[in-house]
Design brief:
The structure is a single chain. By secondary structure, the protein is of the alpha/beta class. The chain has one domain: Ribonuclease Z/Hydroxyacylglutathione hydrolase-like (Metallo-beta-lactamase, Chain A, 4-Layer Sandwich), CATH 3.60.15.10. It has 9 helices and 12 strands. The protein has helices spanning 49-64, 78-81, 97-105, 107-115, 119-125, 200-213, 229-250, 255-269, 277-288; strands at residues 12-15, 18-21, 32-36, 40-44, 68-72, 92-96, 135-137, 140-144, 149-154, 164-168, 173-177, 217-220. The chain has a 7-stranded mixed beta sheet with strand order 1-2-3-4-5-6-7. A 5-stranded mixed beta sheet has the order 8-9-10-11-12, with no helix packed on it. The longest helix has 22 residues, at 229-250. It starts with 11 loop residues before the first strand and ends with a helix. It binds zinc ion (ZN).
């Protein structure tokens, strides 16, 4: 596994005063957003661990040029949120309530699990202390950056229990976190009995809504920034995954056979997508959600 390091390189301007530090296709590095307004700047995602987050904070402070800093994260997973401690004192950290609970309840377990993913990941996680958010809101929060409102919107359980999306309406930019990825199969963190929060059916419902709303610019959790088609692609994948799983479940096909058949089908359909191992997890999740 390559070193999950954030490089402040190839920073893309998506709209006036809205940029993304791209993940450059490096696994366990998220796309990181920075959104500016008249008096404040919001950072979306921290990168994994304090050393990555320090780089992000330094870049954000430079970008802000004295404006007040805020931080939010799309969900509690380590590469998205496990650098928040670095922002303490320098930025106001705000998240939706279910994400705050995820961070508190599941954060320590994920820290240990991710340290087990290999030396490069463990190195970046060294010194992580799980941060306490400064502001916790229920479902929605409208953040005034000065002449620009940003909408933080919890979606309800989907990729995790506490997902949220971040919208910049005046620029029509949407940060989806891991609800949408570009160039890879949807990440189902389906690890029974330890973690079964991911829900294929709820995730599909969220993507149906997001795809219907659309956005000019869509920043996925990982992979290249795209347009509204990216939302439709994830929706269509999840829908097909559900339908193909359930139709086999209806005829009492074994889960192992379903995994084999659907993996072959999906790889044939999306030969260029990475993360083929997530298809099996998705099938497992949707089998558990099959209406008996
Ligand atoms: Zn995630």
């Amino acid at each position: 596994m390559p070193e999950p390091v954030v490089h402040i390189e190839g920073v893309q301007e998506l709209a006036r005063d809205v940029v993304v530090i791209p993940n450059r296709q490096v696994q366990l590095v998220p796309n990181i957003g920075i959104i500016g307004g008249g008096h404040s700047v919001l950072v979306v995602e921290t990168g994994m661990g304090p050393r990555n987050a320090e780089k992000v904070l330094e870049f954000a402070a430079d970008f802000a040029k004295g404006r007040k800093l805020y931080l939010t994260t799309t969900h509690f997973h380590p590469e998205h949120a496990f650098g928040a401690q670095v922002f303490a004192g320098g930025a106001t950290f705000l998240v939706n309530r279910e994400q705050a609970e995820d961070l508190k309840v599941k954060g320590p377990g994920y820290l240990e699990m991710f340290k087990g993913l290999g030396e490069p990941v463990a190195r970046q996680l060294e010194g992580v202390e799980l941060a306490e958010p400064d502001v916790v809101f229920d479902q929605e929060y409208d953040l005034d950056l000065g002449g620009r409102m940003v909408q933080l919107r919890a979606t309800g359980r989907a990729h995790s229990k506490g997902d949220q999306v971040v919208k910049v309406p005046d620029a029509d930019v949407l940060f989806t976190g891991d609800l949408a990825e570009a160039g890879q199969f949807a990440i189902f963190p389906w690890f029974p009995p330890y973690d079964t929060d991911v829900s294929g059916t709820r995730w599909l419902a969220v993507m149906q809504r997001l795809a219907a709303e659309g956005a000019r610019v869509v920043v996925p959790g990982h992979g290249e920034v795209g347009g509204p088609q990216l939302l439709a692609d994830v929706r269509d994948y999840l829908e097909l995954l559900r339908d193909e799983t359930w139709v086999r479940r209806d005829s009492a096909v074994s889960e192992q056979t379903i995994v084999e058949e659907i993996s072959a089908l999906m790889i044939q359909r999306h030969p260029e997508w990475a993360g083929q191992e997530w298809i099996e997890k998705g099938v497992g999740c949707l089998c558990s959600e099959h209406p008996a």
